[in-house]
Amino acid sequence: MAAVATCGAGAGGTESMAAATSKSNVTSFQRRGPRARGTDSGGPRLVSIAGTRPSVRNGQLLVSTGLPALDQLLGGGLAVGTVLLVEEDKYSIYSPLLFKYFLAEGIINGHTLLVASAKEDPADILQELPAPLLDDSCKKEFDEDVCNKKPESDIKMKIAWRYQLSPKMEVGPVTSSRFGHYYDVSKRIPRELIETSKWHGFFLPEKMSSADKVECCSLTPGYMKLLHFIQNIIYEEGFDGSNPQKKQRNILRIGIQSLGLPLWGDDVCCSENCDSSHSLSKFLYILRGLLRTSLSACIITMPTHLIQNKAIIARVTNLSDTVVALESFVGSERETNPLYKDYHGLIHIRQIPRLNNLICDESDVKDLAFKLKRKLFTIEDKVLYK
Q1: Distance from C-alpha of 236 to C-alpha of 258, rounded to nearest angstrom
Q2: Is residue 41 one of the residues assigned to a domain?
Q3: 143 with 355: CB under 8 angstroms?
Q4: Alpha carbons 19 and 3: distance in angstroms, whole number
Q5: Cβ-contact 291, 81 below 8 angstroms
Q6: Is residue 2 in a domain?
Q7: Model-level pTM?
Q8: Range of 35-44, 197-206, 237-246, 270-279 with top mean pLDDT
């Protein structure tokens, strides 16, 4: 096919050269006019998929996490073929929001979803996704938040601005770009959007109802079944690029909820010296291999505060591409501290991938405050004094 395209371009080379020389006063420093639609450029094109954009740093294809502020912290979005690990907050109050934002962004952009859980039916998770917030409503929400803020003179002694001279974090809607949306947590996504979207659910209690309990490669049966399920979806629906005749390519968004819980058959949260200490790390190793060769992106929430063995946490971090931790103020001394009364917790950027390199990048911004307002979950580039 490549040879045919090359021959076609060469046949018309004389005519195109004559047309180019017939134009007067045209130099290589002048901007070329827009090409007519349908014209073959004769060169390689980037994969054009709804809800994606190339990274300005390395050209890697990116998808939005569903939270524009988090996209900005991660260098523009989540790279396709990578894993985003979200360390759950202590009472699992705010981490499900990031999980649902990621899935809701997929539905809005027409991506295929794969939702896996051991404690909640994926169909119920989809019914609880937040509704997209219109630009006008979003602007009104941000305007109200600005009006309700106290004068800066009252909070100058409480909050330190780390980046006063650097560009401020994006806090409002961007109407010119459709990459990343804002969502209203007080409303649910329309049922019509869920019914017209394509998604696959993996509910472990239903999958384990069969008599098949073969344990292979030191993996628990739950992890093994989930890997087979993900692999089948990737290969059968052509997300690995094995079906080049497919007219329109799409992104597979994979969401795995509370990985590592005993419900998965894993005991990493039960004792420090567990029997299946390597099962979780092997699962992540194989999963990342599947993602690297497919048009897919994965978000995993994990209760790392329950894992007693620090070596397991270190392995899980190394096997993940991006790691974000949520620290809630609920039940801590900071909940009653007046310095933190305007916020609900901190978000820590543990690890950011440096793609096409041997080491991972470290974000300059490590501790950021977040708060859950009436409609929006926001992240602010403010560092609170401890």
Answers
A1: 26
A2: no
A3: no
A4: 25
A5: yes
A6: no
A7: 0.78
A8: 197-206
